[in-house]
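#dry-run=false #mode=assembly
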Amino acid sequence: MTKEIIYTLRSPYRENLDVTAFRFGKGRKAAAIVGALRGNEIQQMYVCSQLIRELKKLEEKGQISPDMEITVIPCVNYYSMNIGKRFWTMDNTDINRMFPGYDMGETTQRIADGVFSYLQGYEYGIQLASFYQPGNFLAHVKMMETGFTDKELMKLFGMEYGIVREPRPYDTTTLNYNWQIWETKAFSVYASATDSIDKKSAETALEAILRFLYNTGIITRKIRSGYLTEIIPEANIAQIHSDAAGIFVSSVSIGDHVNENEIIGKITDPFDGETISLIRTNFPGIVYFEYNASLINENTVCFKIIKE
Amino acid sequence: MIKTIAQAALAVNEKLKIRKNSIKNGSGKTRLSIVTGIHGDELEGQYLAYLIGSRIQENIEFLNGTVDIYPALNPLGIDSITRGIPLFDLDMNRVFPGSKEGTMPETIAAAIIDDLHGSDMCIDVHSSNIFLKEIPQIRISVPTAETLVPYAKMLNVDLIWVHDSATVLESTLAHTLNSMGTKTLVVEMGVGMRITKEYCFQLLDGVFNLMKNIGMWSGETVPVREPMISLNRSVGFVNSDAAGIFVPCAEFGEHVKKGQLIGRVLDPLMGKTAADIKAVCDGIIFTLREYPVVYGGSLLARILQSAEKNGEEAEV
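#status=ok
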């Protein structure tokens, strides 16, 4: 393993921001894995830290294939992590909306450029991604439909679901999108939690990444088989919105099977405790996302259901 | 007449409401919409909205048509000094056109578009953020320049900046409305979290001049200034390569020469200058950093290259 500072930013009064990469194996740029681009992506950094531990062991045992190089960047924006912010410390911009970056541009454009320049040329790119709303996802792999990456490749992760997303305008400045434009086959792995560590789903994500590396011949240690991944267009996932505001109580868990018209949660009045809304599914299917904050506004996505 | 154009219940005993003041007079069908407050830390539009509403209502006999004033598209942001939408950490100007079936920000955005669509003209007033001060200007993407520049010239701004279009900007209010055929001009002026009265009065004169030109105002107006137009002129970007405290020595709006010292980045701990900041081209400083703390990459100034340098690339 080699540890390398790939980008340094000076601050007026803090220690330098040193974005650090861990490299394993030598030779062809086979796979790059990126963890926290945002200050609240603790789970994403944690998954990468566990991956680095595993890759160290594999390297010591000679189980990284010849002429294969793997890079892991566990955390880019730890400046924000250390002060409890999600986006950039100074101007609140999102590094994952700055790719491919610009070396003469604003601070977060420069950070994005520094990271992206280093990540050029890898055959596969895996980002540990998060969602902007408070909630937990069923661990899954996702890719953007740019026409460059074969969606069947998602099956090599052996996760239960592979989601295909049609890119929207605001996706075009993300790492995942730009990786694909620069001809890296890019995937986002969602490990359920964001702000805190969920060990079970972290292990699921870790195993899926190692399985992908094995299935693509980058490592030689066999990883036990996973699921026969079901590839689903994002359009096949139903969103269930709150039709009232108040205190949110879920009565299901992610991964549960639900029936049509089943009550899966309720909203109560925050003052008198009366139930003001019963949340029902419109479709039978699997709970893929569950809102997890106590207070909920009207028109908030509280569940996502993978339709049967 | 005050109308609520979108609303959603918040968790505890409150509704988020987006409201407009619809002022109508005469038989004219022309409709002008003034929108502001998409970013909760941009307040120049607050004073402008007041000035427009106040002047029209005091001189209502001169109005022939409808002026709709939307002072706060992001009321939660304005009330909490938050640029984006609180709770979501989301830039509201990246969720348009929204969706009627989407999340709360998306449904609000869709309702706003529904209400604005059909205006003959829309003016979306922004300040800069808290970091930069801007001279009154209108920003127009290249594909809409031919249609919009003639109207932008009526608004009494100092600069019309015609910039390349970017895919990511397709999620803005202005792009959405322009692509639906509602002519929308984006104004940037002043600095975040502050009101610059002279700029608001300058634009106020421009708004009434535009109203007169599109046939909905018959009251007195004043002649407007001829703006600089960035077409065929380069814009030089001055970014800091050092971290520290930026103290400018050039004035906002000043004509500078390439290589001229425009400020310094200082290291207060060491008592030294971390970097001398120099103009990257001849021209006028139309953006200047207001917030002193800088990192490598922080934008310090933008310079519109002098007209006589047309055709030459600015070194940036």
